[in-house]
Amino acid sequence: MTKMFHEPLIFEISGEGKKGFLFPKLDVPLKDNILKDIPSREEIDGFPEVSELEVVRHFTRLSQTNYCIDLGFYPLGSCTMKYNPKINEKLASTKELLLSHPYASEKWTQGSLGILKTTEEFLKNITGMDAITLQPSAGAQGEFVGMLMIRACLEESGNPRKIVLIPDSAHGTNPSSAHICGYRIQEIKSNEQGSVDVADLAEHMTEDVAALMVTNPNTLGVFETDIKKIADIVHSKGGFVYMDGANMNALIGMCKPGDMGIDVIHLNLHKTFSTPHGGGGPGSGPVGVTKELEPYLPFPIIEKEDGIFRLNHLRPKSIGRVRSFYGSFLVIVKALVYMLSLGPIGLKEIAEIAVLNSNYIRKSLENDYDLKYKTPTLHECVFSDKIQREHGVTNIDIAKRLIDYGVHPPTMSFPLIVQGALMIEPTETESKKDMDRFIDAMKQIAQEARNDPEVLKNAPHVSYVRRLDETSAARNPVLRWHNKPGEK
Amino acid sequence: MSYISLSEKDKKEMLARIGVSSIEELFRSIPDDLKIKKNLDVPDSLTEPELSRWMDEIAHQNSYHDFLSFLGAGAYSHVIPSVVDYLSSRGEFISPYTPYQPEVSQGTLQIIFEFQTLICQLTGMDIANASLYDGASGAAEAVLMANRIKSKPKILVAKSLHPQYREVIQTYTKNLDLSVIEIEFSDRGEVDYEDLKEKLDEETSAVVVQSPNFFGIIEKLERISALAHERQALSVVVVAEPVSLGILEAPGKLGADIVTGEGQSFGLPLSFGGPYLGFMACCKEFIRQFPGRIAGETKDVDGKRGFVATLSTREQFIRRERATSNICTNQAWCALRATIFLELLGKQGMKELAWQNLQKANYALNQITQIGGIKPRFQGEHFNEFVLEFEKPWAKIEGFLLEKGLIGGLSLADVYPELSNCALLCVTESHRKENIDRLVALLKEVCS
Amino acid sequence: MYPDNFYYTKDHEWVKTDGDKATVGITDFAQKQLGDVVYVELPQSGSQLEFHQSMGVIESVKAVSDIFSPISGEIIETNEELNDSPELVNENPHDSGWIVKIKIKDEKELEKLMSASEYEKFLEGLEE
Prior knowledge:
heterotrimer, A: alpha/beta, Aspartate Aminotransferase, domain 2, Aspartate Aminotransferase, domain 1, seven-stranded mixed sheet, two-stranded antiparallel sheet, 14 helices, globular, C: alpha+beta, CATH 2.40.50.100
């Protein structure tokens, strides 16, 4: 299907006079000259003019060039690309939720507030934390909020401190978020098992360190078995432990971050809690904290008094706001419907099967690809292209060839401690059949790397577009369509 | 409900291959003292029919939609064409991942490229990104960007910038060597030029104004940009109601260096505040300091046109602590809806939409200000929002209107103590003449 | 492969001296590691640098690398050609892909650097 067309840009099918949408006639008396001296424009230069059919075909065709979960497997480590249940979508379209204005008085939005509060209770339970904010729009913003709260609490005792410790296996948003809070980053080494090197941590943990940012299980899929000891080391010098909860899929119903000595944790509703990725958002990054940090939560918080929900903006120690209103409300609705749908047994089953699926794939591929760390892993595992490099084949080539087999490539841009990484996370919703197809594809690719490396280097061969020139795109950026010839 | 796709036979086979006898064995690495001994204390699972009933009950505790409302203030009630819901609900748009593998994400990337182009056309700028979380965090990112470019320690922010946007700027800048100073507004509701001139100096990185501003007043952007440039500061324009750009001149043509704002008006429901859609655009010389994902055009090995996420070295997954922003997941699906909306309406539709908002708000204001006891608080030109000042206490007027099934506007006293008996009203194309006339009649009744 | 008359650093920069002027670039190993160079952030002429101070950044499509000054001194010239043709760093890293010219402050600092054969041995050690 996708080879039958190459869809142009909407501007290239635009034609003067075509209309896609009509408004009712203006029903108030027309007033001339309203704008007087205000600079105005006759029309938006270059804006398209197309019919409704053209819009529908344009987007329908473009949709068919997208890989998606509804189509196939995404073994993307740390992304938790699980199935997006359709009841979530349906209930998030409930009229009374879509139409509720965020500035309306609480009297008229008790349903929306009740939804937020119920979600908070669920997440507190799952994480074992004392308080939650649903305000951050994504995991990265959650990290920012978490670090701000840590800083505010330390500032109140007189010294915000200067450094944040981050393992070398961490996701890029960790150092980035710490930096915006005014902290310098100090990297902590991983040991031979791929875990935080406790000795290295102890050496670097001083009273100048505000926090350790840790991912558990870490980006290799390994559970930090020393997490309590790690937390103790940090706490003994008055620091805080921040947990990146992106990998919560391995822990849900099994153990609680609140029991591990974690002070702040962010969750990704668009990972563990099944809300759709939408091609890059919207997400939602709730943050859970201990009682000690609760006063610093962003405002407003939702309180229940005499059975009525209220918004409380009077929070003198709060770090402030990180976005308008209350959070990605409809995303939160989807996550809540998911949690209600699964219940305690279903929630625990997530971790059980996520870990089963990942270990099945790991076992099936351990003779074909190099596994740098032999430590037991939970919901994800990280192979590398070490064996294939002997034939001049890299993880990128393997990834592009997987596309020919109808599978989305795994994560490759981190962890930085594994060169040529292939981070695989099947999640709990995958079928054995689709996992076996993936395993077979990977085995065949390993064979191709030995016998026919060129076919990998030139992959993909059967996609809508073949390998794209990312170098030119960066050297000579063309970032928009231009309507005037000769204009750059 | 369970979304697992394994049969009991599958599980047995998988356990056998792994070489363990139970799933429990796979969790050996979690210390016993951390393992939860009983099930989570959360409500039992609900099936689909039960979930629908649950949602029905809780949603009915919302009653806002029963009112005829004139609320705006950064969240606007506009038409959402059926095509927007229809197309955006496709699984190929809802369920894909971020487009890190461009060969299988051309749909997402081409749509981002079109979105970027549309934003550039609306704002009159060279480059736009794939989206930010919302208008408020967009304003904060613009402030950080201006500071990176100019490296001066001062940012001037208009007091007429949305109060929540100013709060977010505060949060984002408080741990940096940056002081944010507010500029007063005049009786016209515009930026107070004397105050601006006095506070502008060579230590200023940028002047940040919203237009139309929180009071609905259209700012004189050319004048403000010129003043900023005289002091080598950047002009940052925030647009919380971009429907206005269907008729107002593009900020880029009026001297803006960075334009950012809220795209909720373009096909996103009010949805109690989120998810919304931040957009940002800038001049091409600032490209390396620009935050957010960007799609760029290129060719594949066969010479076919394609799109990729480009200039990624600005972003966190490569530059880590020196990234232009920590943003990773953004609002791609919301940007998709906005793209469908903008392309469907097109040149004519956008102009008509802006025009109707302007005319209806103007009609409403004219009718209302003929009523004794109410006057427009500001003399400036407005778009689809305006501030009214009342002689009688607003609480009384508001209460009366509520009894009659109307939400009259947003009280400003909490956020602007100097605007104590004032309310902010918004009139859009969604208000019919009889709605506006009803408001006018009721105001007449309660104010005289 | 590596010119005998150059000095080399552990950060994979090379230095070619000509009287009191030093030309600096990155080595072939470094450019291979980076991949296609898309942008070079050059320092300002006239800037004073200390030994091992970051003086710019090289960007490829998927990576970013600091360029560290191998010696102390003043930047007297930067390779403006890299603005339009960053690929020179890949095509000719030891010649037309040069990055800056520095006025040497203290010749003794050159003794801290490696010779061509020492650098080649150093590279062998990296590929464990």
